[in-house]
Design goal:
By secondary structure, this protein is α+β, with helices and mostly antiparallel strands. It has eight helices and 25 strands. The chain folds into three domains: about 210 residues, P-loop containing nucleotide triphosphate hydrolases (Rossmann fold, 3-Layer(aba) Sandwich); about 80 residues, Elongation Factor Tu (Ef-tu), domain 3, CATH 2.40.30; about 110 residues, Translation factors (Elongation Factor Tu (Ef-tu), domain 3), CATH 2.40.30. The strands form five sheets. It has a six-stranded mixed beta sheet, with helices on both faces.
Length: about 425
């Protein structure tokens, strides 16, 4: 069984049309994780709907609508093995309408590949920036930069260096150390430097994309922390019953465990016993952090639970916040944030409107010192301590107890306006 290999969740991010899906498709194909026959079918399908050249992208873009529009809408998870690791590849949408799925994707990932097009005129775009910011906030600490479409840049080293310099500037401004980030020159569609070395760029001496992802470090598993599993979807499967799916963020879940899902639709939580666990169509006796699983809990009904609920053990119930305090970084708001502002907070798999009830202070993020107490507003670039009241029950944990469940992004008017982490919770008794 492949469970022996270490597991890494790898998210592919980047601006729309920079070639994320094609890169993933080519990688899966060149490593024989997809067979010739499937590839032929996708090629025919691409031709049939007038999207010649999209066949690799179709490997991940399985929804009919995605194939016809040529954009990635939802998150797709595919299993993928290398000699060293087994990966779950998450192809995150670059299109801005679909950013909430991208946030979920980044929050599930251990490492990321940022795809940036070297096509003259492309390079770092608005969404390249937004995706890197989000990846950083969501705790994606290992990043590989794939400078794609080198074929469009005539495989010239000069263009590669230009894009590399641009991206290094962006990484530095967000707190990544560019010297620890691998830059790879690739051309996904023709398959240059994906799984095998390209002879078109003799000046490039670094690894292929495949070699680079095999050099990633497997994440340390927070298996000693309490069990937290945010629900991503709930299915009703005939003959089996209610099957919630999601990724174990912290802790370990075993068959036979007594669990509770909160807040659930009634706000009181729902308890039951884990009957079975499955990942990639294999039955497991236990699941650990990083595992994307489907499971059956005796006594759970589909209508009682929903995406955004969180599962934990009955002896350590996930925190449901009536109100919480957070450190907030304002990234991109057209004006200012004041008390009463009620944008949508995205955290783990939940999206809930939350109201800022108090701006306690503005701080210097490097030192933590107070710059201003009780300011009237905060604006782009400010870091503040704020009190927040969700408009509906919300599961969140503090940074010191379970950091993996403390981070969130704040979105409004189709953009990410702020990111933050929870520092204190006023809990609702369940």
């Amino acid at each position: 069984m492949a469970k022996q290999k270490e597991h890494i969740n790898l998210v592919f991010i980047g601006h729309v049309d920079h070639g994320k899906s094609t890169t993933v498709g080519r990688l899966l194909y060149d490593t024989k994780n997809i067979d010739e026959q499937t590839m032929r079918k996708l090629k025919d399908r691409a031709k049939e709907i007038g999207k010649v050249g999209f066949e690799f992208a179709f490997v991940m873009d399985t929804l009919k609508e995605e194939q016809e529009r040529g954009v990635t809408i939802d998150l797709t998870h595919k299993r993928f093995d290398t000699a060293k690791y087994y990966f779950t590849v998450i192809d995150a949408p670059g299109h801005r309408d679909f950013i909430k799925n991208m946030i979920t994707g980044a929050s599930q990932a251990d490492a990321g590949v940022l795809v940036v097009s070297a096509n003259p005129g492309d390079g770092v775009q608005a969404q390249t920036k937004e995706h890197v910011y989000l990846a950083r906030t969501m705790g994606v600490n290992q990043l590989i930069i794939a400078v794609n479409k080198m074929d469009m840049a005539k495989y010239e080293q000069k263009r590669f260096e230009e894009v590399k310099k641009e991206v290094e500037g962006l990484l530095k401004s967000i707190g990544y150390d560019p010297s620890k980030v691998q830059f790879i020159a690739i051309a996904s569609y023709p398959g240059e430097n994906i799984a095998k070395k390209s002879d078109k760029m003799p000046w490039y001496t670094g690894p292929t994309l495949l070699e680079a992802i095999d050099k990633l470090n497997a994440p340390e598993k927070p298996s000693t922390l309490p069990l937290r599993l945010p629900i991503q979807d709930v299915y009703q499967i005939s003959g089996i019953g209610t099957v919630p799916v999601g990724k174990v963020i912290t802790g370990v879940m075993k068959v036979g465990d007594k669990v509770i899902v909160v807040p659930a639709r009634d706000g009181k939580g729902r308890t039951g016993e884990v009957k079975s666990i499955e990942m990639h169509h294999e039955a497991l006796t236990s699941a650990e952090p990083g595992d994307n699983i489907g499971f059956v809990v005796r006594g759970l009904e589909k209508k009682e639970i929903q995406r955004g609920d969180v599962l934990g053990h009955t002896n350590n119930v996930p925190s449901v916040a009536e109100e919480f305090t957070a450190q907030l970084v304002v990234l991109n708001h057209p004006t200012v944030l004041t008390v009463g502002y009620t944008p949508v907070f995205h955290l783990h798999t939940a999206q809930v409107a939350c109201r800022i009830t108090e701006i306690t202070k503005k701080i210097n993020p490097a030192t933590g010192e107070t710059l201003q107490a009780n300011p009237d507003f905060v604006k782009n670039g400010d870091v503040a301590i704020v009190k927040i009241k969700p408009t509906q029950l919300l599961c969140i944990e503090t940074q010191k107890d379970i950091p993996q469940m403390a981070r969130f992004a704040v979105r409004d008017m189709g953009a990410t306006v702020a990111v933050g982490m929870c520092t204190e919770i006023k809990k609702k008794q369940i």
